[in-house]
From TrEMBL, chains A, B:
It comes from the Bacteria. Residues 179-305 form the DHHA2 domain. It comes from Desulfoplanes formicivorans. This is inorganic diphosphatase. Keywords: Hydrolase, Manganese, Metal-binding.
Length: 306, 306
């Protein structure tokens, strides 16, 4: 029986490429493994898979009775709804430790680095398994994506070193150009429905009993969304109400200016000032230097909600 | 500020030796680290530390405001009561994934092997750090203890390989004799109060909302406790009532016969038959081939309570 390897809901490129890489590594360690995703992949991931000639993984959302490995998360909220009915064999992640638990021992590789693929690179090295050229390309792109081309606060020396070594294997020499190309694809918004933009990289969190959603759009220029900012604001308000959420925040991150405009829909907007010390005006606020949801936004909100 | 490294409540030899080894490794990686324990060490651990000339770690039970790393557990019930007020930097473990969560990314090395020290051996190798002779002796003894000299159902090839390599570094050639010597120390019961025997290797679990305690005495011969079995039965009954527990079970494990006599104090003794298919008589039952609390007893009870 094959082991299913997959990342979080609303898959990003680390989740997609990480699942594919981990399934490849497991296969070479003698474990029959298949990478899948919990949902449709985003345009950036489609670009990466196409570039390196790797097939798009199938979508699968139910895993009762199956053996599984998780990538890029350890939160029940980001896992399949029937995870408890699956046998969890392992977790590879780089986030805070979530609320997934198991009845049996398992293999966890969880490191405080910028990208799951940095951890998977170390696993290939640890087990002495060669990384195929196309898989190295996928992993490299995941690192460029998660670390915003090494600019994110979550980026570590381990990520840079892993990316360098993967670039050599993949035969990629201009990482800046490759990263910018990816972010242009990611920034594509023309003709996209608002809800698809809001949910392109979106996660729900339980913050001290409050349901809080945080989405992020990483943009090469905030001007790209100037015309639709009001529509985005209306949509996160709608999303908040549909899901009985306390708040929905949308991070409009300018990767060149290295900061984030936060759009706010909240029962208590004062949590934003509590979290960041900056006063919102007109349902939004500029957060200079803030680029990482995981390392900068989530911890600050968790303190504000505590 | 030093990082405190420690294992679970009611420390066993893996918890004690693992904390000392991980603190040594961290120090060599440039992290100031101090091994401590959450309670008095058991006679087996005292024997090991004495044999290899390593000082007994201090007891420390409160960690608010401190940086910490956990060894040999990831359950809140086995952690310090104020763990949530500490900053958790890492976990090294070989059990099921427990309910510890963090607000920040951390480093987890959790493997499905027989002993935390097997994982720590791999960490030394991964980071290219040499293992000191006396630390290698401690880690070797932890593996012999946790795997019952390689006989436990939890023992893997990785444990055997790690033990072999550690034995070379420590200069130990007869692992069977070393293991038996340790279990003789562990089996020592003469003059020991009942409660101390029951709690020598004891853990509380939350099983579907029921508080369930499981203790284990690993003995070279069940005859060693023939005279005190009734007193032990009375004491687990008392322990059950004092703590409003649903059940307290005491595993009297015969490491030579490779099986366990289970003493039972329970609001509903039928869970034992549900868990093992064997009918208890007179508050006890023989479980042939059962030697591991973690791999055989806890999972079966969790299913029976589900
Ligand atoms: Mn990631
Ligand atoms: Mn252990």
């Amino acid at each position: 029986m094959a082991v299913y390897v997959f990342g979080h809901k609303n898959p990003d490129s680390d989740t997609v490429c990480g699942a594919i890489a981990l399934a490849d590594l497991q296969s070479k360690l003698g474990v029959e493994a298949v990478a899948v995703t919990q949902g449709k992949i985003n345009p950036e991931s489609a670009f990466i898979l196409d570039k390196f000639g790797v097939a798009v993984p199938e979508v699968k959302t139910s895993f009762a009775g199956e053996k599984v490995m998780l990538v890029d998360h350890s939160d029940l909220a980001q896992s399949p709804d029937d995870l408890k009915e699956a046998e969890l064999l392992g977790i590879v992640d780089h986030h805070k430790l979530g609320d997934v638990t198991t009845p049996n021992p398992l293999e966890c590789w969880i490191w405080p680095v910028g990208c799951s693929c940095t951890v998977i690179k170390a696993m290939y090295d640890f087990y002495g398994v060669e990384i195929p050229k196309n898989i190295a390309g996928l992993m490299l792109c995941a690192i460029l994506s998660d670390t915003v081309i090494f600019k994110s606060a979550t980026c570590t020396d381990k990520d840079k070193k892993a990316a360098e070594e993967l670039a050599k294997i993949a035969g990629e020499s201009d990482l800046q150009a490759l990263g910018m190309k990816m972010f242009e694809v990611k920034s594509a918004i023309k003709g996209t429905p608002m809800r698809e933009l809001v949910e392109r990289d979106y996660k729900d969190f339980d913050m001290n009993g409050n349901k809080v959603g945080i989405g992020q759009l990483e943009l090469v220029d905030l001007a790209l969304v100037a015309d639709i900012k009001e529509d985005l604001a209306k949509d996160i308000q709608a999303l908040k109400e549909e899901g009985n959420r306390h708040s929905v925040f949308l991070m409009l991150t300018d990767i060149m200016k290295e900061g984030t405009e936060l759009l706010i829909a909240s029962d208590d907007p004062s949590v934003v000032e509590k979290a960041f010390g900056a006063k919102p005006e007109g349902g939004k606020v500029w957060l200079d230097g803030v680029m990482s949801r995981k390392k900068q936004v989530v911890p600050n909100f968790e303190k504000a909600f505590a």
